[in-house]
Automatic annotation (TrEMBL):
Keywords: Isomerase, Signal. The keyword Isomerase applies. The keyword Transmembrane helix does not apply. Gene3D superfamilies: 3.50.70.10. Residues 1-28 form the signal peptide. This is Chalcone isomerase family protein. It comes from Janthinobacterium fluminis.
Amino acid sequence: MTKQHINGARRLLAAACLAAVLSPGALAVEVGGVKLDDTALVAGKELKLNGAGVRYKAIFKVYAAGLYLPEKRSNVAEILALSGPRRVAMVMLRDVSSEDFGLAFMTGLNNNSDKADKAKILNQTMQFGQMFALLPGLKKGDMLALDWLPGVGTQCQLNGKKIGEVMPDQAFYNAVLKIWIGDKPVDNSLKPKLLGESG
């Protein structure tokens, strides 16, 4: 091999390595010291990480959260109107009791749903609360995923294992999403990050 051939081979190898690093499957976003994948496979469809940030309570980091959508969106109404699968992923940054976590969820649901919405999803909301009551608690490093599966419903997973019942109504999943991106989000600094806004 000539020197020219060797240099050419090195350039090709370097380009291949760079392509591997930059490929969508290899990318990850670091949030609060944990890495969230740049894509997620939900209901057989690859979703893109729309935005990610840390949920704070007072000065304490509670969890890192990522919103995955079929295509990036920054408008809340458009996100709620999407027909494809969606995911909210959370990685715990501290231990949280099931009571505290469930209460925070229920408060977020109530704060962002009007009376008609609450009545429509009452049974599913109660089932959701019962699911949290059955959990022993969430530990630092645990990963909770809340998925919308078209034609199926809302499915929860803890560390990759399905938990609780499937909630069939899309209105319920949208109510869950509004915990973070509704008019009264659980964390005002997290909402713009999940919507993919910079800064």
